[in-house]
Amino acid sequence: MDCLFCKIIAGEIPSTVVYEDDTVFCMKDINPQAPIHLLVLPKAHIASAAEIGPENAGIVAHIFETIATRIAVGPEFADGFRVVTNCGENGCQSVKHLHFHVLAGEKLSDRMA
Ligand code: AMP
Ligand code: ZN
User: Fold this and answer.
1) Is 30 touching ligand 1 by the criterion CB < 6 Å?
2) Please, what are the domains in the chain?
3) Considering the entire predicted model, what is its pTM?
4) C-alpha dihedral (29, 10, 43, 82), degrees to nearest 10
């Protein structure tokens, strides 16, 4: 499959890995929008948040548990963080592999868009 994030997970394209386990992968965003900008994604290819259903909802729960217990745990997250996923054309999703942006390190905009 011609998917950028699948290639990164497979190690075919380099990335700055922050955390990984059997099912979840976390790397630094190449174009950070905040002092801390991470991407958390399932290793299995899921195209977007619109493709979440009973068969894969467990991995999404695991992603959020991993963010809370493994990723957003240092002092730089102590004052809070934001988790965002863009979905589809109007959501401005550019990479068609489900991923959650984790943004932190400063007071973020109080507007979502
Ligand atoms: P989205 O627009 O929500 O689909 O987010 C895609 C994100 O992937 C953007 O924030 C990009 O900066 C990021 N991105 C694109 N290519 C890479 C890459 N090779 N390594 C890390 N992040 C990337
Ligand atoms: Zn993929």
Assistant:
1) yes
2) 4-104 (3.30.428.10)
3) 0.98
4) -10
